[in-house]
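Hey team,

Filing this mostly as a record. A colleague (T.K.) asked me to run one chain through the structure pipeline before their review meeting, and I want the input and output archived in the tracker in case anyone asks later how it was produced. No errors, nothing strange. Just documentation.

Input sequence:
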Amino acid sequence: MSIFKEYKKLNSFNEFVSKNIENDQNLILKKIKTALSNSINYDSLSIKQKEILAIVKKDLFEDNLGNEIKFKLSKHVIEEIKRLEEKKIPLYLVHRYRYEVYPEKLILDDYPPYLQIEPSSICNYRCVFCFETDKTFTDKKAGFMGTMNFDLFKKIIDQAEGNIEFLSLASRGEPLICKDIVKMFNYTEDKFLNLKVNTNASLLTEEKIHAILSGGVGTIVFSADAADAKLYSKLRVNGKLDRVLKNIEMFKDIKEKKYPNNRIITRVSGVRVNNEQSIDSMTKLWGELVDQVAFVDYNPWENVYVSKESNIKKPCSDLWRRMFVWWDGKTNPCDTDYKSILSPGGFEQNSLKDLWKSKAYSKLREQHIKNERKKLFPCKNCYVT
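Output structure:
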């Protein structure tokens, strides 16, 4: 594992390769200008959202010198904008600004810019860099293992719709383990600007693939850390590369034959943990099967509860960026704290908005702003900023 100093949550890609040759920032800026020049695209926006767009336009199209935090277009954001209808671009920019800039400026909104929903905390893998290797977490008697029921999922989605535009269906476990996952995919159709799913792809079936491609998923990330079968199994314990490869090939085949107009972004993403991994070998194996191949930085979160203090003082951006809802409805400010010591409460007793702006959350943010991470457990052991 790498020697670690800090894990920057925003834009954590270590390396990023896109096979799309039209990935041109100038073309996207032209598309954005066209979308922002059409007043019809503003009709559904609030006064506050229009004010955010004014800042976005200034950041993107004016040469502003100085050290102020500005909104920028990263490669994967360009890819997302390129696949949007013109009328959706202004709203996307508003929420992307909230996601990227608000946490850096410590601005709190009524809802989290990003919501991460956990269909399952159970995983069939034991990746060496993951907290699923902590037996005190995966022991069934400990109460952390389970899958979300569909009724709870619907309630969460209903509250998020119209308030939060970026969501993930994944967190501590493998989402495809959940028995209601097909219904979950179907229920999200046409509800959000981008719904992402992270999966190890080992449990993909034709039924699940059809649900993903016909539902509301905008990005699917296949987690794979190597292009060599031996290294893959070494890092992703219990995993078999040939099985995952066949499943992703099946996904590509179904998409091309049955959903040729689907604009879903497909990505193979690995965690960079050692020098045996190579973006070139990853691109050679996966590049023709997906739109993007990437490595993200390693975050030392295998067991934050027994780690040494990190001496990080900077506030954790996740406190302003995202909220997690576990399979049982419990909410949490991060997934590094995978045993929910910092939980502000349960979703079924509180609304998403009330939880996000709760006293417990506010106190956490206040302590981080005051450089008091060392007084908080497990924050004092965490490297995320």
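Quick notes for T.K.: The chain has a mean pLDDT of 93. The longest strand covers residues 265-272.
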